[in-house]
């Protein structure tokens, strides 16, 4: 499930050094590989000059109910938020008030996605599955902004499960799904939607349009790139089917297909079992092959199930 934003860069704003404050941050800036670049603790924050002044927060505070942020600006004011509340548990009461995107008033419901120019997009009140719950327990990331080689996350309410991790390692953060699998569909590129065939056949036709798009940590856009669950979520979003951006949750979002011989085009195939559910997902296209976004340094491509037989977990029909 999201990223962050807000208001002008006041000269009096306190500039906090990267990684300076211990405890649970209210916001983070990560690069496109998922590595932590900077984070904001409670209080006022303005990202240092070498971050390009991507983020300012006028005030923030945390209590047992969740985290509240006020007077937020992201991307030089392209996104502004008067106030935001992210619950410490569940989704009830999450809200974003006085939201402006590109100088215009906007409204944010859960998983609202809006383009913010230059190929960037923001996901508001993004839902994320709790690890180990397979999508049955959901939390919220207030705002997630994807801009170039930066991902800005605002409104992190939960206590971290793991404070620091290395690039590419499996990890959990704030009790939510790994942020490497959190994202939202981009609205900046509209695929050619097939008009014939069943839902699964149409899903395959859409997915094939993205062959060759690069793998990007947390990616869910054909312009900036996809990760595995981001690709699946984006494809099915075009068909009106809402899926989480977390392979562990997607494994429970549909009808389980018990036998490989029963697979149909469009079914989701899962690999690499783990404590939070399967760690990888692709879209079955028929003939023993599936389409997926494998890993950093690779692109969306077609592979055979035989290549992945050792790590195969199962399949789900998400419609």
What does this structure look like?
This protein is mainly β and 319 residues long. It has 2 domains: 27-179, no CATH class; 199-317, Alpha-Beta Complex (endopeptidase fold (from Nostoc punctiforme)). The protein has helices spanning 199-208, 228-237, 247-250, and strands at 27-31, 36-40, 45-46, 55-63, 66-74, 79-87, 95-101, 104-106, 112-117, 120-129, 138-147, 150-154, 220-221, 225-226, 255-257, 268-271, 280-286, 289-292, 301-304, 312-317. The strands form 4 sheets. It has a 6-stranded antiparallel β-sheet, with no helix packed on it. A 6-stranded antiparallel β-sheet has the order 3-4-5-6-7-8, with no helix packed on it. Strands 15-20-16-17-18-19 form a 6-stranded antiparallel β-sheet. A hairpin with a 2-residue loop joins strand 7 and strand 8. Helix 1 (199-208) packs across helix 2. The longest helix is centred in the middle third of the chain and has 10 residues, at 199-208. 50% of the residues are buried.
């Amino acid at each position: 499930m999201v990223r962050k934003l807000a208001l002008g860069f006041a000269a009096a704003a306190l500039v906090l050094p990267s990684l300076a404050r211990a405890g649970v941050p209210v916001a983070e800036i990560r690069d496109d590989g998922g590595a932590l670049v900077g984070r904001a603790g409670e209080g006022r924050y303005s990202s240092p000059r070498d971050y390009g002044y991507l983020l300012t927060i006028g005030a923030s505070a945390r209590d047992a109910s969740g985290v509240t942020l006020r007077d937020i600006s992201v991307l030089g004011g392209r996104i502004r938020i008067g106030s935001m509340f992210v619950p410490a548990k569940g989704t009830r009461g999450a809200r974003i008030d006085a939201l402006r995107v590109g100088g215009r008033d906007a409204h944010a419901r859960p998983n609202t996605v809006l383009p913010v120019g230059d190929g960037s997009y923001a996901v508001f009140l993004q839902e994320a599955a709790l690890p180990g719950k397979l999508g049955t327990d959901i939390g919220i990331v207030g705002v997630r902004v994807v801009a170039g080689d930066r991902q800005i996350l605002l409104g992190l309410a939960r206590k971290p499960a793991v404070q620091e991790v290395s690039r590419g390692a499996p990890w959990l953060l704030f009790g939510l799904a790994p942020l490497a699998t959190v994202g939202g569909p981009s609205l900046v590129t509209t695929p050619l939607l097939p008009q014939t065939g069943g839902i699964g056949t149409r899903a395959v036709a859409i997915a094939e349009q993205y062959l060759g798009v690069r793998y990007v940590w947390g990616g869910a856009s054909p312009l900036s790139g996809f990760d595995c669950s981001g690709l699946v979520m984006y494809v099915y979003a075009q068909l009106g089917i809402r899926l989480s951006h977390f392979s562990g949750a997607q494994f429970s979002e549909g009808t389980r297909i018990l036998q490989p011989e029963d697979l149909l085009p469009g079914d989701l195939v899962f690999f690499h079992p783990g404590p939070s559910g399967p760690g990888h997902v692709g879209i079955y296209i028929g003939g023993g092959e599936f389409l997926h976004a494998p890993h950093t340094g690779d692109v969306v491509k077609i592979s055979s199930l035989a290549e992945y037989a050792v790590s195969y977990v199962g399949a789900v029909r998400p419609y």
